[in-house]
Amino acid sequence: MDFRLTDDQRALQEGVRKLLEGRFGRERLRAAVDGPGAEPVPSLDRALWRELGDAGFFGLRLPERDGGVGLGLPEAVLAFEEAGRALLPGPLVATHLAAGTVPGAATGKTVVARVDGELVEWLDAADHVLGNAAGAVPVRSVDPLTPLHRVPGAAGERGAVTGSGVVTGSGAESGSGAAGGFGAADAVLAALLTAAEQLGSAGRTTEAAVRYAREREQFGRPIGSFQAVKHLCAQMLVRTETARAAVYGAAVTGDAVEIAGAKLLADDAAVRNARDCLQVHGGMGFTWEADVHLHLKRAWTRAERWPAEREAAELLAAALR
Amino acid sequence: MDFRLTDDQRALQEGVRKLLEGRFGRERLRAAVDGPGAEPVPSLDRALWRELGDAGFFGLRLPERDGGVGLGLPEAVLAFEEAGRALLPGPLVATHLAAGTVPGAATGKTVVARVDGELVEWLDAADHVLGNAAGAVPVRSVDPLTPLHRVPGAAGERGAVTGSGVVTGSGAESGSGAAGGFGAADAVLAALLTAAEQLGSAGRTTEAAVRYAREREQFGRPIGSFQAVKHLCAQMLVRTETARAAVYGAAVTGDAVEIAGAKLLADDAAVRNARDCLQVHGGMGFTWEADVHLHLKRAWTRAERWPAEREAAELLAAALR
Amino acid sequence: MDLTCTEEEEEFRARLRAWLAATLPGLPPRPDPRDWPGRRAYDTAWQRRLYDAGYAGLHWPADAGGHGATPTQHLIFLEETELAGAPYVGANFVGLLHAGPTIAAEGTLAQRSRWLPPILRGDEIWCQGFSEPDAGSDLASLRTRAVRDGDAYVVTGSKIWTSHAEVADWCELLVRTRPVSADVPGHRGITWLALPMNAPGVTVRPLRTLAGTTEFAEMFLDEVRVPAAHRVGEENDGWRVTMVTLSFERGTAFVGEVVACRRTLRALAEAARGNGRWDDQEVRRALGRLNAEFTALWRLTQWNVSEAQRAGGVPGNGGSVFKLRYSHARQELYDTAARVLGPGCLDLAHDWTTDRLSSLSYTIAAGTSQIQRNIVADRVLGLPKGR
Amino acid sequence: MDLTCTEEEEEFRARLRAWLAATLPGLPPRPDPRDWPGRRAYDTAWQRRLYDAGYAGLHWPADAGGHGATPTQHLIFLEETELAGAPYVGANFVGLLHAGPTIAAEGTLAQRSRWLPPILRGDEIWCQGFSEPDAGSDLASLRTRAVRDGDAYVVTGSKIWTSHAEVADWCELLVRTRPVSADVPGHRGITWLALPMNAPGVTVRPLRTLAGTTEFAEMFLDEVRVPAAHRVGEENDGWRVTMVTLSFERGTAFVGEVVACRRTLRALAEAARGNGRWDDQEVRRALGRLNAEFTALWRLTQWNVSEAQRAGGVPGNGGSVFKLRYSHARQELYDTAARVLGPGCLDLAHDWTTDRLSSLSYTIAAGTSQIQRNIVADRVLGLPKGR
What we know:
Chains A, B: InterPro entries: AcylCo_DH-like_C, AcylCo_DH/oxidase_C, AcylCoA_DH/ox_N, AcylCoA_DH/ox_N_sf, AcylCoA_DH/oxidase_NM_dom_sf. Chains A, B: Residues 6-99 form the Acyl-CoA dehydrogenase/oxidase N-terminal domain. Chains A, B: Keywords: FAD, Flavoprotein, Oxidoreductase. Chains A, B: Its cofactor is FAD. Chains A, B: This is Acyl-CoA dehydrogenase. The complex is a heterotetramer, with 2 copies of chain A and 2 copies of chain C. Chain A contains 10 helices and 7 strands. By secondary structure, chain A is an alpha+beta fold. Chain A folds into 2 domains: 7-172, Acyl-CoA dehydrogenase/oxidase, N-terminal domain (Butyryl-Coa Dehydrogenase, subunit A, domain 1, Orthogonal Bundle); 186-318, Butyryl-CoA Dehydrogenase, subunit A, domain 3 (Up-down Bundle), CATH 1.20.140.10. In chain A, helix 6 (184-215) packs antiparallel against helix 7 and helix 8 (256-281) packs antiparallel against helix 9 (292-304). The longest helix of chain A is centred in the middle third of the chain and has 32 residues, at 184-215. Helices cover 47% and strands 14% of the residues of chain C. Chain C folds into 3 domains: 7-88, Butyryl-Coa Dehydrogenase, subunit A, domain 1; 126-236, Butyryl-CoA Dehydrogenase, subunit A, domain 2; 250-380, Up-down Bundle (Butyryl-CoA Dehydrogenase, subunit A, domain 3), CATH 1.20.140. In chain C, a hairpin with a 2-residue loop joins strand 2 (145-149) and strand 3. Chain C has 11 helices and 8 strands. Chain C has a 4-stranded mixed sheet with strand order 1-4-5-8. Chains in contact: A-B, A-C, A-D, B-C, B-D, C-D. At the A-D interface, helix 6, strand 7, helix 7, helix 8 and helix 10 of A face helix 7, helix 8, helix 9 and helix 11 of D.
């Protein structure tokens, strides 16, 4: 047993981080957020999407013979964690999961959206939609970088996933399930990759809070020297590292219940860390200019993806035997 | 409107506090707790009970023509708050509520217990039992100063109280309800008086934590100068004062739903304050010699009285119209 | 423990209620939130109506043009106007609740005559220039400096979190008139000035919040000349001048908000009953718990107001206890709203979604929860100061 | 990220499992918790069996009489013994997990030969004399003093929270050999001594906890003579000597407990299904959330053990992160147990009620949560030290 990252995994992690820093750094992020108009409709950066495709982000788990990178779930989780850190926008999970079945998805040529319960992210930008989005109406999305549509009548309990199935397949073997080209196994994988994004966000807001606490001075000293702020930051780290263990563990086992648990803890870490980060930033955290609200809004958005807290808790309870 | 205590109410509060300090001070409390044997069965101090009766503790709300003091719910709440502070043992609520109906209850000659759901406190010490305690079996009570019996088959949802009735009657007008001589109005009054006891306990543990934090030194200074400890204590006060407003308010209006809310907040304040008090005391708080565990165990015991958290929350939800 | 109102108080309530019923239907439609001149016009017109009806400056002393109402009457006023859905104090906030009372307490007769009547009539709008980018929780570290030059102060610096700056006529400004040194702690050497917003060198820039709105502004001051006659109180005594009023809080600060939260809570229960979430025990009980919470906060308000009334308007520290609990409860309310809405919580078309965003400031603005806990620990509980 | 065991590790597990299956049925019944001599006999007999089977000192280095097992093997050992319901380390705890490793790392050859074999064989029991009534979180402020007198130290003072003191042969004792002064900070001037518990002047008094048990004791030392040869490490260097081992924690500290908590959680679910509480969504989902929690804590354990393995046994600060989360989760577990039990949670006849009481110490013992957060903030996050 060696749960730590292998050298290859570490290199992958660093590679994705560098790619995103270069192609979607802070300036690019702010440009996307601060577009013209009070509520600019974000547009998908197709060139970036192709670049992600070229870098293997979408085809990561496809066999090499199919033009993929031939890696596994742990590697996909590391890549999505970086995407979460960078607040990378777009229907990343759907496109990644469609890589084996929807032509052009793996290379980033085809943008794929999916219907999850009553919501669809990035519908207008998508070339291909998994699930039935008929009659979808646009929503004034709380996250400025995630356009949303609502599919009327699609509400109700989601997720046929129960029990403790294990998902290990690459995208090639899934994607043909019951719910409009998005099967139960894919739903579980989507939950795991979403959890990885949340983990990345939780880690990023922890770092941001710590950096601000070191620099910001009040009462003649850095606010990070006050126990109240110290302890907020410490609890952020605890949440992040617990979620990390859960997400990485779930990536290794691929167990559906463990993945539900990972999503639950990662959702909690992302949302609460963003709020604590905001608290540490004080008034500055309440401004549009600070990035912390983008993390919070995205974290809220991802938390609504299947399984939401309530759904995950029920799944985890049912598995207690 | 003047929500503050009147001079008479203040005098009553002080009088009860002094009485209890004199008759059930710390030494008396510890003697009751540290009796012979590992788990001494506490016995009711009949002399003290009579003295409480003489002081009007039980007959507080009885009309003067019936030998009572002729005061109202707010005064009863103040007296029970003091009882909670002092950790005064015995079936105080049941005896107080029986003062108008059970002969000798008002004077403290008759000790009255009552069946609340599946539990009865102080059954063996009681001269009179409200409700059907047939077949009751003794329980190894977590609270060393509250002997408990369990009535088999009496489980299930309690409390026929719904809606938002107002209880204003003195003991003389109630006590003849459905459930074995303990009607719905009495159940609501019992909840209020229990909440008052919890409030007293919450206030007492706040004081104890603050005192200890001022005296105890670690790292060369009082632990109360550390923000982490300061903030624990501050939150204790916030819980206490919120519960106080809720309990006093409910005492004035006598509204059944408001009383359920007061019980919910007072239960929370008593339990969480006892735990925070324990945390502030560190290792010393974990010893039998410290009083804090007595507050926690009693708070747990009172929290199980009707309405427990779940029951109160449902009542409060149903009233939202 | 008396929660009933006196006959006089009930009469006051009845009169107010009748006036509100007669007046509110005649109000023009509310302006768009982004239309600042429209908002100013709306808010000041409402203030003028209050003035004409004898409700302006209700709790101000008579010698300041007010009606010397008790805290209880003020509470009734705030409760009834909120229940009736009357306009908020809006752009009149700083004038009525802070700058005005400060001038009333510390200003000269000339200053009171010049500034107070226009506030009460809704003729002039004030904003507040206290916070700075580097002086938030630690207000005493403010750096905007003022140098005396003849009969004026020359002011340079910047302020932040200034509401209604775009439409304000005056700004109550705190400036540093003596540099901080070993002998001069931060809160000495501060002076209170009334800054005319149209003075040359004043630049206002809207500040966008995370809710996407521009309720606040930044203000930049570049060698702005402020007549020395606009100074309230002594030079270097501005900290005390300000604190006198900041603490002149009679427990009524959040009356309208608590009333509004209780209404929101009932609306949430109704929505939950409508969309099926009511059947979720977790959601339902969360609503029940919030019922207990906001009922208690209403009682706590009445408690604090009663304390203030007896103590003659002198502040207790109940304000910090209340704010700590209320800030948290309000955030909890909107988190629960999100559970009721389900995925709809991501839709800004729901007011509760935008209110959820705004509520994020509650544990920060006007003293973070961390600062409030320090205040409670140090001033109420008497715990030793940290080093 | 590899959670599978190597072939060698699987073989180790299989062998251990077989041995446990063969051995456990032959154990005598567990003694009454209040029967200290019985407990000692039971615990030491079990240790002797482990010794004979080659499992004693599994993770100790070979030159200390151990088997040099990797952290993973140690984790497997703790996991399997807990799963099999084997006896706990009990009275052997301090010897095997602290005093022994300290002597192994810092003792002379003679000291190691004298003290280590009896620990491994279960012949001698150690207890720990570190905490004092006035030195808890701030251990460096300990006051028990030792004065050199010829070839012995004369020790006077008192210790608290000493487990198994009633039946211990030795105590690893920290004493002050140089007074604190401006030049000598608290953690300098401390010396590590092996105190024979039968030495004249040693008095042990049971300390009753809030759970009603006497798991701990107070120890009073009145001019007790301890041979200087019983000093491990240099005089005044005891702080370092102790910390070397205190930090020699390879992520395995709570393995058995986490396994036990997961078992308790399943038992709670079963009980809830049995008594109807399962139909309460709040209770059911609370159990579901705890499932996520303890699964994650198990993964976090594996993570920390992997870190320790790679780093060669040198500590990370993952221990504080784990302990913060675990302490809270464990208290949550028993609070949830109380919800499953309903009024039954007041009955000490339920193990969960007594376990709930014991769990109250988790956020205090071995470093309060407040201290742990300081450690995480200062050492892991690098936040500036407070003043």
